[in-house]
């Protein structure tokens, strides 16, 4: 291998600037001097590993993208908010988080602030909120995470990825080691990841990470005689009454051979994320039944619990001595997500549990047994499905400590934990009164102008408010040029002249909007939480603007 000296970079990792200035080496006949940064695969490393230079480069890279996002919308036109959120997350935030697992956990607080500034700029474009909007309300209304949240999530994911490697892998060895810190105030992905793991396991038990699937099935491998059915007809949709859904499922199941071996499996997880359990009921052609219960992990999604249940049922079936291989197998479960994942075929599986299911299906199919996997609607009165659901709930109470957790589940749990900690830290105020610890979704069903009013009113800074405009010096009066007092005469509501036209006054107390409140929520004194309804806030904002328009129209 020949080394190109003219392309070689050198960097001294030191707290002393003079160390870097004294470095000079010769590589392949070319003199290489130590620089202030070293760029590797798009990431700039500095001598202190604070990544300040990299953050500054990211800001220069992202600002044109934010400008592009701004050109996609205006005050009364543009993309829908859901589309704006998608573009902001993929085009702007995606650039900021490039290779973030390598540098973001180690970035200093001051440099994280630089990243947060660019995220807030994108959030203002998405929501139309003003520059003075409190950052927590702005980011919540835009549906964007903060840099600190991204840092913790990336660190947890990086540590989980390293722990999922086989023993002896260099990265796994690095993750398991505990060398002394270079700087007491600087944490890397390993230390921050361990902090996140500790939050995800309040009892102190270590998280056991599932070893990743290193070799997947080749794409040309045949799945065998395995069929998937993800519906039972139009009457099986969730919006239909339970009786219709049950009848549709029963009609579909009657089309299968009655003398088949039936497997009814189900998964359960507390709140959809904790203490997973899988349960299955195996019914043979002669009416004999066997029950299967399996723990799915302390951190577990409902879909993963379903997969655990199905794998355990197939393992129980294939391990039965002298089992009947002449009859077809019908598998019924109520998770479309699990079925859709498996339907992609053995080569598309990326987790050991899904790969194990396909191995079992192929092994059974190799004996000549056809296999049908059928989705059935949940909680509609199918007796065997209800029994499987009961078994899954029983299984969630089994010991979970030894059940491994996959990287995706850990990453999602870390995201929920980081979001919850951020919401708990919200300061008391108007926005927290409305939402509590919830996050708002995108404003839908309203035009762009109304959506901006909704965001601004709920965030507490509204551009149509006299009190706000006077506070920032845009509505001076002869008596007072600028102040933040809500009792100042210049801040009075132009419609009722009773008090300052703060968002609380406009949405809850202005007498001129009593009729609108009565029409929308059935009372002239709505509660603060009723302002979570986008339509209510938009209607009141439109009513207030209409009142102002009448005042501005000469008689």
TrEMBL record:
<feature type="domain" description="RNase H type-1">
    <location>
        <begin position="257"/>
        <end position="397"/>
    </location>
</feature>
<dbReference type="GO" id="GO:0004523">
    <property type="term" value="F:RNA-DNA hybrid ribonuclease activity"/>
</dbReference>
<dbReference type="GO" id="GO:0003676">
    <property type="term" value="F:nucleic acid binding"/>
</dbReference>
<dbReference type="InterPro" id="IPR036397">
    <property type="entry name" value="RNaseH_sf"/>
</dbReference>
<dbReference type="Pfam" id="PF00075">
    <property type="entry name" value="RNase_H"/>
</dbReference>
<dbReference type="InterPro" id="IPR012337">
    <property type="entry name" value="RNaseH-like_sf"/>
</dbReference>
<dbReference type="InterPro" id="IPR002156">
    <property type="entry name" value="RNaseH_domain"/>
</dbReference>
<protein>
    <submittedName>
        <fullName>Retrovirus-related Pol polyprotein from type-1 retrotransposable element R1 4</fullName>
    </submittedName>
</protein>
